[in-house]
Amino acid sequence: EDALPALADAEVVFGQSEFLARNAPRLRWLCSPFAGVDNFLAPGVFASAEAALSNSSGAYGVTIAEHIVMVALEMLRRQLDYDAIVARRGWRRDLAVRSIHQSRVTLLGTGDIGREAALRLRAFRPERIVGVNRGGRDESGLFDRVLPREALDAVLPQTDILIASLPGTAETRRMLDAAKLALLPDGALLINVGRGSVLDEAALEKELRAGRLQAALDVFEHEPLPKDSPLWDCPNLRLTPHVAGNMTLPYTVERIVSMFLEDFENYCAGRPLKRLVAREKGY
């Protein structure tokens, strides 16, 4: 609301609110400081039909990759169970734990987040790290193999740790449905740090309550997670309130700003923007 008087003749906006886009009739470019731009894709969000949209994909890989490592270790090493024991002032040391070492890791999404996660997970010496993306291509060299999404059914039964970092689009919606989750082997760990719409939460809840799978979810189909959601007290689940890619790490904020300034130079020079969003794809 404070920005409203300046929006009348604003040509460039650096911000996340749809209010800014809706009230800037002369807007030519909006740069979102977030990676996800779902809220800007609906018809009528932009007052100007000529406005370009870019995001800050590439700024969050470091912080989200560290979150992935953290929750993977917490779940595999039974930290939630040990926390509960210590909270009761108990002393127990015999819970069976697992390791990233020699695990079969699959990264569903090989963008900035997937690459940064693979880089860190490699240090734990997993059996293999497989990437899955739209075209089965990879130039990073961080994965043992990269497969197209059509191969997902074949790779899931050979996955001990599945990490999803996909954007929320029509193509990815409910990609991890009941049938896909059933393909994971007993004891597999699912980590979702992309968008909640990728996952069938009801199907996952059944698997978790049956004790067949484990999960660490940072994103949900409806956020904030409704107070009456059965996920709040679901066993075998590490739940965090969409904090993996937050702007609470100074490095992330610095990276977001430097990326905007880089594209601002491109804009002023009439060059193409590096992080332009393809609205029809949603990213």
Count of helical regions: 9
Quote the beta fraction: 5-15%
Helix-and-strand structural type: alpha/beta
Strand order of the largest sheet: 6-5-4-7-8-9-10
Low-confidence stretches: none
Cα distance, first to last residue?
27 Å
Could you walk me through the main structural features you see in this protein, from its secondary elements to its overall organization?
This protein has 283 residues and is of the alpha/beta class. It contains nine helices and ten strands. It has a seven-stranded parallel sheet, with helices on both faces. Helix 3 packs across helix 5. 36% of the residues are buried.
Would you kindly provide a brief summary of this structure?
The protein has nine helices and ten strands.
Furnish the topology, listing elements before pairings.
Elements (H helix, E strand, L loop, with lengths): L3 H4 L4 E3 L3 H5 L6 E3 L20 E3 L6 H16 L2 H9 L16 E5 L3 H10 L6 E6 L11 E4 L3 H4 L5 E4 L13 H6 L5 E4 L8 H9 L4 E4 L19 E3 L10 H19 L15
Identify the notable features of this structure and list them briefly.
single chain; 283 residues; alpha/beta; 7-stranded parallel beta sheet; 3-stranded parallel beta sheet; 9 helices; 10 strands; globular
